[in-house]
Structures are given as structure tokens and as C-alpha cells.
Amino acid sequence: MKLVVLLLLFQLFGSSHCRCFCQVTGDLDDCACDVETLDGFNNDQLFPKLQTLLESDYFRFYKVNLNKPCPFWTANSHCGLKDCAVKPCSPNEVPEGIRSSSHNKYSAEANEHLDECEQSKHLGAVDVSLSDETREALLSWSKHDDEAERFCVVDDEQSPDSQYVDLLLNPERYTGYKGPEAWQIWNSIYEENCFKPYTIKRPLVPNSFQSSSGSEARTFYSWLEGQCVEKRAFYRLISGLHASINVHLSARYLLDDSWFQRKWGHNVSEFMQRFDSELTAGEGPKRLRNLYFLYLIELRALAKSLPFFQQKSFQLYTGRAEEDQKHKEMLLDILQLARSFPLHFDETSLFAGDEKEAAKLKEDVRLAFLNISRIMDCVGCFKCRLWGKLQTQGLGTALKILFSERQIEALPSRSSEQRPSFQLSRQEIVSLLNAFGRISTSIRELKNFRSLLAEER
Ligand SMILES: *[C@@H]1O[C@H](CO)[C@@H](O)[C@H](O)[C@H]1NC(C)=O
Ligand SMILES: *[C@@H]1O[C@H](CO)[C@@H](O)[C@H](O)[C@H]1NC(C)=O
Questions:
Q1: Ligand 1 probe mutation, 188, 190, 367, most atoms within 8 A of CB
Q2: Is 242 within any annotated ligand binding site?
Q3: Disulfide-capable partner of 70 in 75, 150, 334, 425 (CB 3.0 to 4.6 Å)?
């Protein structure tokens, strides 16, 4: 029945606008919500607030190691494209508070060498006005190790190869990185890390019209339907991430590259290549729906994380108390807003199976995700590697939150001696919010593409 309606719609509006968006409307699968409500919520309420927050010092400086070797194959480490370059910060550009408070909890070795006394001296040197309570919290933060809980490989922040990058100065946009190398990355993510047997072929990509019989696609989707909701979700998250990145690249395409100007902007034909239902044999609209799905998952993780950020001892610490307080309030405001969005997932269907099964599933998803984050070290273009790492880490953090609901709710409301059962590092927090910022921007960009395509009719 649904199919008939879609086909009818399709004939009625055979326009390019329709070929991208007509199937991206109405109810979203696995969720009690619809596209239109979500667009309004994001574009009018959440997006502007989040943009402001992401410009703050706490969120704009991301510490990352872009020089790890690819663990799976020999990668070209330089793609030679100037737009792939990432300019790291010089040390004095990063606020002192950030440099010291990221004082590391990840390298066991470093923690052994620094005894507590040294650590507190180090922290104390930043801001002697820190309350004892905060100092305690920062210390337990430094020592906490949750390797077994992590969904991503976290870069060793003490490594001399890790550097701060100013995300505002290194925006995600079209770099010219594509072709076989980029394809290999996505292909190994989908083929080797999405729980998919090799015998099931993934419906491909524009330009490969061989699969036009549609039988491969049918086999694939019936396989996907047979998966448990979480594994299906996993595939859709990866597809959503892929879609989001492609929306950005089409929205910030290098349109003009002459000796006197370089101009980035919307490239409608690039967008169509990736999302038009005809040009992609029906895959494009599915990808866009997966983007909405990803948005909802991350939104839900933000909503669930509220008790963690509400803890009194939690600070967005840069060393400037007044600003830090203001930004914490902005963050809480955004999380409250996320909580207020009425139409989340059916609580009983996702991440909520019986306990033993859930633990197994959590482990499966965690390992697959961990591996995907390592694949990011194989991305040849540094700019893409930076944003790829940030976005997979952000999504990994979102999953960690969703799978830790009980621990988060059990967090003590006052900080005490007892070691908290749930922690997020600064790097995880920065990636969580920035990754969501990218998805939120993608949803906002879809609005632009909708109107650009409507004009073209
Ligand atoms: C991790 O990814 C690589 C590269 O795609 C793949 O060869 C390997 O089998 C994966 N390992 C696991 C444990 O999934
Ligand atoms: C837009 O993208 C297409 C590829 O999809 C490219 O051929 C075209 O030159 C681009 N347009 C502009 C104005 O850069």
C-alpha cells in the first residue's frame, strides 16, 4: 500500500526536488516521530543554540593524533591536496586551563609516574581558587580508566604526536579527496564491520548500474530486516554518518578556485549524484532517512547524559570561572531542550533486551565500533581524517552513554570519595557535542537543498 502511494507521488512530482525528498517525509522507522517535526525542532530551536556553544573555547579545541599509522593496509599518508591540510594550534593559542586539565587519564604509564601530589600541584598551578571539591573531581577524573567501556580508540593525549586543533579554523568541507582511496575506507567499514556476511552484497553507489535488477538490493534489505534492532541500527548509523559527511561536502563544495578567489558553496548536482532516488537506484532517500535516524540516536544520548553534566563538580574547565559557568549553563540548556523533544524511540525496543543478551550485544557493537575508529587512521586526507575521527568518536560516545543509562542515573548527586561509575573525558565531551553539531548542520543544510531544488523546477 505504502509503495503504491510512493509510486503515485513519484509520478506526480517527477522533479529533481521530489527525487531527493519525496520519500524523506513522514514517520521514521524504529521511532515514534516524523521528519517534519524534527526539522522544525532542529532548525528553529536546537541548531542556533548549539552553534553558539560550539564556538566557545572549551569546544573548539580538539586534541587529536593525526599521525597514527593505518593498522590495516599501507595508506598514502599525504594526498597532496592543499585543502586536506590541517593546521594545528601553537601551544599558546590554547587556553592554559584546557592544556592542564586534559592532564591525562589515558596513559597508564603517565599516571604511574605522576603521583597524586604532583598531579594536584599541576592542577593547582592553573587556578589556585579551585574548590577542594572540584580539585577532587578533576583528580578522580584523571585517574579513571574505563578501557572496557569505551567504544572508540581514544588517542593518547600525552603522545607527542597529539596536537590541539582549532575546529573553527579547520572546517569540514570539500577537499577533493575521493576516488578509490576514499572508497576503500567506506567499503571496509561497511563490508567488514557491519555484522554483514560477505555473501550479502550491499546495494551500491551511484555509477554502478549493474545492480539495476534490484535483486541484490532486495536480498540486502531482507537480510537487514532479519537482524535484531540494534544491529540494524548500527548499519543505519554508519549509513547516516556517511550521508551526513556527503551533505557537508555538497554544501561546502569548492565552486570557484581561481588565483584571486576561492569560494565554497552549495553544489546541487553533487547533492543529486548522491541522494537522487533515480541516480542512486533508490538508495539516496534511504540514506537521508538514516541521517535522521542518526540525529535521533545522538539526540537521545544527549538527553540521557543530562545527569552527568548536571553534577555540581562538573565544569567546562578552561580556567576562566565566569565564562566556564556561563557555558555550562548553555550546555545544560541544550540538553534540557534535547530532553524536551517529545518523540524519542520506543524505550522498550532499542538497547533494552534482557540483561545477558544486552551485554553480549553491547560488546559486539563496541568491538565493531572500536575497529571503525581505527580505520579512521587510514584516511589519507588529514582534514577528512580529523573530522572522521571526531565524528566516529562522538558517535561512539553517544553509544557509550546509551548503553550506560543505569550507571548515569545512579551517579551520586554530590561528589564523594566514591569513584563514579560513569565518566566522560574532555575529548569525549568535545567530540560528542561537535559530532552532533555536524549532524544538526546537515539537517539544516537539507532545508537549503530542498529550496535550491525547488527553485530549479
Ligand atoms: C577490522 O577492520 C579491518 C579493516 O576493515 C578488517 O580487516 C578486520 O577484519 C576488522 N576486525 C574486526 C575484529 O572486526
Ligand atoms: C558540481 O559538482 C559536479 C560533480 O557532481 C561537478 O562536475 C561540477 O563542476 C560542480 N559544479 C561547480 C560549479 O563546481
A1: 188
A2: yes
A3: 75
Between helix 382-402 and helix 283-310 the angle, nearest 10°, is: 60
DSSP 254-289: EEEE-SS-EEEE--HHHHHHHH-TTTTTTHHHHHHH
Proximal ligand: closest to the CA of 206: 2
pLDDT given at position 114: 36
Helix %, strand %, coil % of the chain (to 5): 60, 5, 35
Single-letter amino acid, residue 105: K
Would you kindly state where each structural domain of the chain is located, as residue ranges?
Answer: 2-96+136-455
pLDDT at site 147: 55
Residues 6+ apart with CB under 8 A from 344: 31, 32, 33, 296, 299, 300, 303
Confidence (pLDDT) at 244: 93
Q: What confidence tier does 5 reach under pLDDT thresholds 50, 70, 90?
A: very low
pTM for the model stands at 0.81
Look at residue 166 and give its three-state secondary structure. Answer: strand
Residues belonging to the active site: 381, 384
The rounded percent of the chain whose pLDDT value lies above 70 is: 70
**Cβ atoms of residues 226 and 235 within 8 Å:** no
Closest atom of ligand 2 to 273 CA is 5
CB atoms within 10 A of CB 176: 15
- Cβ burial of 55 (10 Å; 0-12, 13-18, 19+) is exposed
Which amino acid type is present at position 255? L
- Answer whether residue 360 shows pLDDT above 70: yes
Cα angle 2, 206, 173; round to 5: 105
User: Buried b / exposed e across 116-144, counting CB within 10 Å, b at 16+?
Assistant: eeebbeebeebbeebeeebbbbbbbbbeb
Provide φ and ψ at 256, rounded to 5°. Answer: -135, 125
